[in-house]
Design a protein that fits this description.
heterodimer, A: 471 residues, PmbA/TldD fold, 7-stranded mixed β-sheet, globular, B: 439 residues, alpha+beta, 6-stranded antiparallel β-sheet, 22% helix, 37% strand
Chain lengths: 471, 439
């Protein structure tokens, strides 16, 4: 802990002074979130690793709560006077001046869900370049149709320190690594593009030849697939979601509407569903932040709470929302470790970490063969949801038509839209082939982006509205 | 930090880069100050203040290129080391003969008009007035309908400023302000809980529209009760003016030099060709006084120019910056848009709807995406079924699917209802033969 105090050039006494200022107007609770993030990226275009970028971000956010009201301000300096000034601003959410009795200093050790062999700070541009170059070169070696490739490598290291009016002092060291490639191919005058990427909380060991090869193969396979792909018939169709990245279904259709801030405000379509059966009894949906190395994992959430595995849906019953401190207080439950923030400039909100469905009782082949006419989808780019109406969407980059129980024609570039509670109730089969996705999933809410993870076994949703062409 | 202080630090960082091995450098320093008050249940829900500073540096080192950014700009020792490390790192990169600062001939030279993008009274707005504004919005709605279940309103304002210098002699600064009011209302009829939202914004406090925002948000929410998908089919689509920019966005992105050079555009080689109907005319005008996208120079310092982007469906220009201009052997035109003015039609929204026998009036998009290489798109939508010129019922949970090349050829009517408080001034648009998927 001392090393973190030194890192931010603060002493325990300074933390206590700032908290006292934050609590001086009668707030119920206050916390300080220190962050120092160093990120580096390399870019390859037209065959050469020809751009580099480095960014440094540093500051401390001060939050004061009064009931479920929030006052918040931040400073980009950890100088005592600057911190006291923003603490005073945040304190204004309350207006009942008191003398704060002072805060204790309770240091807390945290578990470690990111195993790092070599820190990014000890890695040089020179060491990273060969992996970026190799990914490009493999792409051109694998398929002569490749006309353009853009490779991006990014690494990030965050030092985080947290202190609250309850005395909790804790810290975290958060790495993030990403490598990806955008591939453009040309065939008989037609162009197509797709990309592959992986992102994990790892150090420099993240970059290895096997992963480079996997990414190259995947980008080639996905882009090739698009030539000759068409569109399904427009309308309501059965949708089979392949294992892995299809977890986007859970993220949009249920994950967001389960976030307790929306429910506290009565704005979610699931606001009156707690304790009720909302899906078939073989469905178990989990929110977890403890998968080692996963992009969505955290050693501790951004409000100093333990990150744990929480069942949102157990045997088909809605068991828990996703909570931050405000909503956990409101509902009188323990925090679930879902209080997250984009940076020290932002207030924590209930956010997802890794959202997935456990294995179900069905067989993958049986699921596909049960469909007369529908679509099989397993490659996605983005999704969205309207919390109150419950309508969610996800964009399918590629998949297959299912005709008479068999995968037939390739399809591409279609949006799928459904209604959350209906779609959840319409999951009639789930297989035993669970997979965790390792792509670069980033979730946006209230103007804040955070990295997340997802996973799913193959499932059948009886009916969703699929974009396509009308006869 | 005053403008002079920013210039002084920027100049120091630029000189430091040149003294330590960079042949060229560009430095900009920016700051954004903003405040936000969110109100619910007749209390302040959230009070936020933000003062953000930062520096960006572009380094050109022995034909190699690196960019860095940091918010640690007052400690010269640390900043100097950061610049030196970036220069050392850049040396490992591949040479790129196309990287350089722009031709100084193209620079803005400091004799432009006052575009009035900042409220001179920004710092004297009464904080109590901000609170009164946010609470007044809520008051407009509370108790107005039994079906209301949640009301959130907010006031926000902000002021941003930047200075930029480069080693080719460019020097310029910008300043912008905004004020905005936002209301969102959730309602229920026992099943879904649709939300409606409305906002107004302005560069000037005394021009901010403060009335009817809550009322409009409530109406938007109530209008969505009972929304349901209808059968799939090809129909005319009327896109509301507030969303019409979203339809134009992929077309403008496809004109970007990087997309053209990287073959990630469906409009490669289409300059001079007709890519849309005669009704598709768009002018990029950087000089509109108090326009939300008005500026005298772009992010490379190149002087902005008024130009036609599309005229009667014919594509007239790409957005080419210095780097991709060199790669493509094209003249740089500035790599970014300013105010895009879509040539309006003569009918208002009601007039446009009156001409529709059966179609869908789209008032919201929900997710979806497009393939920038092929122009294929598919988006979720919500809106209203229109029959014989009248809004019949709310529809939702539907998709539109097609290709932008076809869509813009099927632009059959353009409204007169331009929203002047946006940088993209696009009126309501009517497209024929759009594929809707529903039931």
């Amino acid at each position: 802990m001392k090393s973190y105090l030194d890192h931010f050039e603060v002493s325990p006494q300074m933390l206590q002074k700032v908290i006292a200022e934050a609590m001086s107007k009668g707030g119920d609770y206050a916390d300080l979130f220190f962050e120092h993030t160093i990120s580096n990226s390399l870019g390859l275009e037209d065959g050469k690793v020809n751009s580099a970028n480095s960014n440094v971000d540093y500051g401390v956010g001060v939050r004061v709560l009064k009931g479920d009201q929030t006052g918040f301000a931040y400073t980009e300096s950890t100088n005592l006077q600057d911190m006291l000034k923003v603490a005073k601003t945040a304190a204004n959410i309350a207006n009942d001046p008191v003398t704060f009795p002072g805060s204790k200093l309770l240091e807390k050790e945290i578990p470690n869900y990111y195993k790092i062999s070599q820190k990014w700070e000890n890695s040089t541009v020179e060491e990273k370049i060969p992996f970026v170059q190799k990914l490009n070169d493999r792409l051109f070696e694998l398929d002569e149709k490749v006309t353009k490739a853009r490779v991006f490598q990014r690494d990030e290291t965050s030092y985080v320190m947290f202190y609250s009016s309850e005395g909790l002092l804790t810290c975290d060291y958060r790495p993030m690594a990403t490598l990806g490639v955008v591939c453009v191919m040309e065939k008989d005058g037609q162009m197509e593009n797709d990309y592959s990427a992986q992102s994990l909380r790892q150090g420099f060991e993240f970059l290895d030849d096997n992963m480079v090869e996997e990414l190259a193969q995947e980008a080639i396979k996905k882009t090739n697939f698009l030539f000759g792909a068409g569109k399904p018939k427009a309308g309501e169709l059965p949708v089979v979601l392949g294992a892995g990245g299809s977890g986007i279904l859970l993220h949009e259709a249920m994950g967001h509407p389960f976030e307790a801030d929306f429910n506290r405000k009565n704005e979610s379509i699931f606001s009156d569903k707690l304790g009720k059966s909302i899906a078939a009894d073989f469905i178990n949906i989990v929110e977890d932040g403890t998968m080692v190395g996963n992009r969505g994992s955290l050693n501790i959430d951004d409000e100093g709470n333990d990150v744990k595995k929480v069942y949102l849906v157990k045997d088909g019953v809605l068991e828990s929302y996703l909570h931050d401190r405000i909503s956990a207080n409101f509902y009188g439950v323990d925090p679930t470790g879902n209080g997250r923030r984009q940076s020290f400039r932002h207030v924590p909100l209930p956010r997802m970490r890794i959202t997935y469905m456990e294995n179900g009782p069905h067989n993958t082949d049986d699921i596909i063969s049960s469909v007369d006419y529908g679509v099989y989808v397993d490659n996605f780019s983005n999704g969205q949801v309207k919390i109150g109406a419950g309508d969610f969407t996800f964009f399918v980059k590629s998949g297959y038509l299912i005709e008479n129980g068999k995968l037939t024609e390739p399809i591409k570039d279609i949006n799928i839209i459904g209604n959350g509670p209906q779609a959840l109730a319409d999951i009639t089969m789930a297989a035993g082939d669970y997979k965790t996705a390792t792509g670069t999933w980033t979730c946006g809410k209230g103007g804040q982006s955070v990295p997340v993870g997802m996973g799913l076994p193959t499932v059948l949703v009886k009916k969703l509205t699929v974009g396509g062409t009308s006869a | 930090m005053t403008k002079e202080e920013k210039y002084s630090i920027a100049k120091w960082a630029m000189d430091h880069a040149i003294q330590n091995g960079a042949q060229q450098a560009r430095v900009s320093i920016y700051n954004n100050n903003s405040s936000q008050i969110e109100v619910r249940d007749e209390k302040i829900d959230k009070l936020q203040e933000s003062n953000r500073n930062g520096m960006r540096i572009n380094l050109y080192v022995d034909k190699k290129y690196s960019s860095i950014s940091t918010n640690r700009i007052t400690n010269k020792e640390e900043l100097g080391k950061f610049i030196e490390e970036a220069i050392a790192g850049a040396r490992y990169l591949a040479e790129d003969e196309y990287r350089s600062l722009p031709d100084p001939e193209l620079y803005y030279k400091g004799d432009g008009p006052d575009l009035k993008t900042v409220d001179p009274s920004f710092n004297s707005v009464d904080p109590q007035q901000k609170l009164r504004d946010a609470f007044a919005l809520e008051k407009e709605v509370l108790g107005k309908d039994d079906r209301i279940i949640s009301v959130s309103t907010s006031y926000s304002d902000g002021m941003s400023g930047s200075v930029m210098v480069d080693s080719n002699g460019f020097k310029g600064d910008t300043e912008n302000s905004y004020y905005s009011l936002y209301a969102s209302v959730s309602v229920t009829d026992g099943t879904a809980r649709p939300q409606g939202a409305w906002y107004e914004s302005s560069i000037f406090s005394d021009q901010l529209i403060r009335k009817d925002i809550g009322t409009k948000a409530l109406k938007k929410a109530l209008d969505r009760l009972g929304q349901a998908k209808i059968e799939s089919g090809k129909m005319p689509m009327i896109v509301e003016n507030k969303l019409a920019g979203r339809a134009l966005q992929p077309l403008i992105s496809a004109l970007n030099g990087s997309a053209i050079q990287q073959k990630q555009s469906f409009l490669i080689g289409m300059k001079g060709e007709k890519i849309g109907s005669d009704l598709l005319s768009v002018v990029d005008d950087p000089f509109i006084v108090s326009g939300r996208g008005s500026r005298l120079f772009d992010n490379e310092g190149i002087a902005t120019k008024k130009r036609s982007v599309l005229e009667k469906g014919v594509l007239l220009t790409y957005y080419i910056d210095t780097y991709y201009g060199k790669k493509l052997e094209m003249e740089p035109t500035s790599g970014s848009d300013t105010n895009l003015v879509f040539e309006p039609g003569t009918k208002d929204l009601e007039g446009l709807l009156a001409d529709i026998d059966r179609g869908i009036f789209v008032t919201g998009f929900n997710g979806g995406n497009n393939n920038q290489v092929t122009g294929d798109f598919s988006y979720g939508i919500e809106g209203f079924l229109v029959e014989k010129g009248k809004l019949v019922k709310p529809v939702a949970e539907m998709n539109i699917t097609g290709n932008f090349k076809e869509l813009w050829k099927n632009l059959v009517a353009v409204g007169s209802d331009v929203d002047l408080n946006r940088s993209w001034r696009v009126p309501s648009l009517v497209f024929d033969k759009v594929d809707f998927s529903g039931i």
